[in-house]
Every structure is written in structure tokens, then in C-alpha cells.
Amino acid sequence: MVRSKATNLLPTETRPYHSNMKTTIILTTLALAMTTSARCFPDGATWNNREQARTFINDACYKSGGMFTGNYAPRQLKAMCPRGQGQNIDFVVQNLNGNTGFDLADKDCYDRLNSEISKCPHGGETTAAGWFFRWVSGSLKTR
Fold first, then answer.
1. Rounded-to-10 torsion of CA 122, 128, 133, 135
2. Cα(90)–Cα(95) distance, rounded to whole angstroms?
3. pLDDT of 95-108, one tens digit each?
4. Is 54 strand, coil or helix?
5. Full residue range of the structural domain in which residue 101 is found
6. Of 5, 33, 45, 139, most Cβ neighbours within 10 A?
7. Tell me: the pLDDT tens digits for 32-43?
8. What is the per-residue pLDDT across 54-67, written as a single tens digit (0 to 9) for each?
9. Which helix (H) or strand (E) holds 137?
């Protein structure tokens, strides 16, 4: 019996579907890139005026020329240390991508740092979507 070449082909429904595999790989890669890790510091000084801290980050994230606005080079870190009420407060934002510079969206900047202020009374840090955010409160007095 002679088979035609056409009979050796599998029906469309049983052929391996490579684009599903590509989609799975892409989605897995995106999920890993969007992984978030966060931690609050268990002790240390607390910032007594959360609204003032929010004003600091609003200015740094939204105002033209603000400390955290503009493009970040690969792995670039930007930090500020405003002072008030006998305390200082340190804010850090870093682009974790080692190959590409990015412009952090103003809203993302504010929302991430505000989340740290709201959830972590002694300070905390978050890594999310290729960015690192930290806030720490401290006393200006010599220890």
C-alpha cells in the first residue's frame, strides 16, 4: 500500500502548537520581571509627621526638577535626605536594570514611596518591576 504524503500529516488539532509555548515563555518572563518583594524594618526611629513625609515625596516625584523625576541611567540610584522636627528621613529610588535607562512614572514614584510610609513606621524597602524604593527615618542627634 502506498501512502500519499498528505496522509502522513497530523490533523491540525494534534500538531504541536508552538505559539502556546512562546506565549507561556513570554508570560513567565513578564511575571518574573514584575515580582515584588517588600519588607518593613522591625525597629528604629519613626517619622512623627507622615503628611510632611508625603509632601517631601510629592515634591520629589511630581515637581519639575524634583529629585526623583527624569531619566535614570542603568543601575542609577537617586537619594534625598530632607530634615524636619529634629529628624532626618532618607528616601532612595534606583533603576535596577543594568542595561537600559528608564524614566520612572511620577505616579509610580509617589505610590511606591507612599506605600512604604503608610505601611512601615520604622522605614522599609520594596523591589518592584525593576525598581528599588527605600525610606528610613532617623534622629539628627548624635547617638
1. -10
2. 17
3. 999 999 999 999 99
4. helix
5. 36-139
6. 45
7. 455 678 899 998
8. 999 999 999 999 99
9. strand 131-139
> Per the structure, how many domains does the chain have?
1
- Total residues found in the chain within this entry: 143
pLDDT digits (tens, 9 = 90+) for 126-142: 999 999 999 998 754 43
Q: Is residue 110 within 8 Å of 61, Cβ to Cβ?
A: yes
The residue assigned the cell 525598581 is 131
In a domain, 18, yes or no: no
Query: Could you tell me the CATH number of the domain that includes residue 118?
Result: 3.30.430
For the chain, give the mean pLDDT.
80
Q: What is the DSSP string of 12-41?
A: GGGS--HHHHHHHHHHHHHHHHT-EEEEE-
**CA proximity to 129, closest of 98, 96, 92:** 96
What sections of 34-103 are H helices per DSSP?
Answer: 50-62
